[in-house]
Amino acid sequence: MPASIHEHLAHSEPEEIGSDRSFGLVMAGVCIVIAAFKLWFGGLWWPWTMGAGALAAIAFAAPSRLAPFNRLWFRFGLLLHRVVSPLTMGAIFFGAVLPTGLLLRLFGADPLHLKFDRAANSYWRARDNSGPGSMKKQY
Question: pTM for this one?
Answer without folding.
Answer: 0.64
